[in-house]
Amino acid sequence: QSGYVYRVCRAWHRANEVKGYRWVVDIDLEKFFDRVNHDRLMSEVRKRVSDWQVLRVVRRYLRSGVLVDDAFHERLEGTPQGGPLSPFLANLLLDELDRELERRGHRFVRYADDCNIYVRSRRSAERVLRSLTRFLSMRLRLKVNESKSAVGRPWERTFV
Asked: Which range marks the domain in which residue 9 is found?
């Protein structure tokens, strides 16, 4: 499966190059699954789910703690790594990012917490990186991983 995703993304890079989108904003969210804000995420879940029992199960799932040195630690942020609901919940939260990118008219590909946005110039790419960093921080309470995120040429950056 992952090979398929890689091939699709590589084809997307090439298609955008032909159309003049020769710059990419490569965004990686810092420790995304560890730092998802529960209240912000539950707000997104409540927009789509009205059954209070389902909402309670999701909230308990998010708070499910971990044992460290025989001591229980409740999870105050983040989603359980490898948990069956975590990718689904991540997509619920990041749907707002997708809608914002569409609203702005950007060409983009997102896979989990990695996102590539294609633009025509370096200047546009730098502007998009700055504005999306602000949007993610202010609106979704997420932090962009500055060491992994960058502006570059699509053929120089790897995705997924």
From this structure: 2-36+85-156
Domain count, the chain: 1
54 occurs within a structural domain: no
Each residue of 17-73: pLDDT tens digit?
Answer: 547 889 999 999 999 888 889 999 999 999 999 999 999 999 999 988 777 788 887
Residue among 120, 110, 126 nearest 159 (CA): 110
Q: Are 51 and 35 in contact (CB under 8 A)?
A: no
| pLDDT one-digit tens code per residue, 95-124 | 999 999 999 999 988 888 889 999 999 999
CATH number of domain containing 119: 3.30.70.270
d(CA 99, CA 117): 13
